[in-house]
Amino acid sequence: MRTTSMLLLLTLTPTLWAQERKVAPTWLHRYVPSLSDKRTDFSTTSCHYTPIFAEGDSEPKLLQSVTRFGEVSVEARGNCGPVDYERQEEFYFVLSGTGVLHYREETRAMRKDDFTYIPPEARHSLVASSDQPLRLVIATVKIPPELSISAPPAKPLVANLDELKEQTVEGHPTSVLYKLLIGPHTATRDRINAAYETADFFLMDFAPGGTNFPHHHEGEEEIYLVLDGQGKMAAGSGMNSVEGLYPAKGGDAYYFRPNCTVGFYNQDAREAKAHILALRAFVPLPQNPD
Which CATH class is domain 25-282? Predict the structure, then answer.
């Protein structure tokens, strides 16, 4: 009887381990309208934060460099609390409404389609300046300790989508056009070149039937937020090279770990436009144990 029990235990053990062992996903999906507000360090009674990925999400530890990606809603004439971060950089993109950015000792009016870069150590806050709510996307990325950080500029770095011309990007088809918003401080191609650990913060404009071919980034994690339109998101692939395709529409957000296949196919119908706001951040390279 004892021998039979041992054999049964040995037979069941691998199955039990398989049930208990959790494997980190290679990508995540969230639908923003279904998410709930969570308090964060800049929250007030009139400033609300909806986490999409990282801080406040159900799987915050999966992301390696992005510490916060979500939506901020400031009630009419409301305000967010002032914050500053020692080794984190922030990105704002205004979805609707008007407001005022308080940056150090300066103020700057902000409107729909404005975007800004907030460097580390810069005290900042937001105020809704009209009788309509102010809504914006916020992303925060941590900066590794080995990177040297310069003193923050005296004035805020703010621009608008209207100032940028759409362009193609090498390696991607002409059926998707890009507006390159914010990129590394060592580069020159983006409208604002100031970031440390962020490879790019950009907007994609898809023509009917357009796509950015599925691809992957070995040393970067990426987030796609569908602003409008609908199509199919490529997220991951198997050893048979078959793409994992999932429906995507306005409000859908996808996170992709390094080396995960990422891409988007816009629907092929007359006047079927789609726009995606994307963030791509470098991740620390793994250490060689030898």
Answer: mainly beta
Domain boundaries, the chain: 25-282
Report pTM. Answer: 0.90
For 269, the token pair is 């119908």
Which pLDDT band holds residue 256 (cuts at 50, 70, 90)?
very high
* pLDDT tens track for 90-112: 999 999 999 999 999 999 999 99
pLDDT > 90? residue 284: no
DSSP structure string for the chain: -HHHHHHHHHHHHHHHHHHH-----SEEEEEGGG---B--TT--SSEEEEEEEETTSSSGGG-SSEEEEEEEEE-TT-BPPPB--TTEEEEEEEEES-EEEEETTEEEEE-TTEEEEE-TT--EEEEE-SSS-EEEEEEEEE--TTS--PPPPSS-EEEEGGG---B--TTS-TTEEEEEEEEETT--SSSEEEESSEEEEEEEEEPTT-EEEEE--TTEEEEEEEEE-EEEEEEEE-TT--EEEEEEETTEEEEE-TT--EEEEE--STT--EEEEEEEEE-PPPPP--
What's the confidence (pLDDT) of residue 181? 98
